[in-house]
Amino acid sequence: MTDAVEALIEARETRNWLAALPNPPADKAQAYAIQDEVARRLGPVTAWKVGAPAPDAEPFRAPINAATVFEGIDRLPASLFQVIGVEAEIAYRFARDLPPRDEPWTREEVLDAVASVHPAWEVVDTRFAGFGSQDPLSHMADQFNHGVLVVGPAIADWRKLDPLAESVTLEVDGETKVETVGGNSAGDPVRLLVWMANVGARSLDGIHAGDVITTGSCTGTVFVEPGSRSVARYGTMGTLELTVD
């Protein structure tokens, strides 16, 4: 595991992208252990990404460090990225801690711990020489392809939000790329938050007050070029814009 951690850290520092991981993970537990150790090395964890390939599938997660969380901005430098894959998402900020405990956190307890809900961008990236070039466990070990998280403004009356009915249109340079309603493959994002409280965040001492959890793409990934302007238009959550140049 140490070799893989060192390789991922070095790739971030030098931008010499990896042909493969030395001693790649053999299972999810090893992939998560690599994720966690890289996160510890990179600094404070203030956010998470979580998703699932289907409404009844086991979720997956990755910790996100403070250095790649942005708020109140609509522009990022292209130099941050190797590839630029934009995803319109729904993110939840927590008002209080949900530490690991023997009794599972209930759905109601998890929702009561939420402070606000936000439209968000995740920009996906890779530390490998080619997006999608590795086996799934290696990509999982590499922070599940996280690049940056851009958190939009809090929405009013977030408890009235129905993510399964929320429409999202993604435009790039004025061209509509995706139009969807409830487009998250995981289905109900609240089940992902409950899983995070009880399983996903345990290895890093649970969810902390102020943490943001982004719950997977509503639009899929749209790869864009430097200089592009992306616009996500949500049905009830407003509009989010991002230029990467």
UniProtKB/TrEMBL annotation:
Pfam families with a match to the protein in the record: FAA_hydrolase
Q: Boundaries of each Fumarylacetoacetase-like C-terminal domain copy?
A: 72-244
- Recorded superkingdom: Bacteria
Task: Determine if Hydrolase is one of this entry's keywords.
Answer: no
Q: Which Gene3D superfamilies does this one have? A: Fumarylacetoacetase-like, C-terminal domain
Annotated keywords: Lyase
Q: What is this protein called?
A: 2-keto-4-pentenoate hydratase
Species of origin: Azospirillum picis
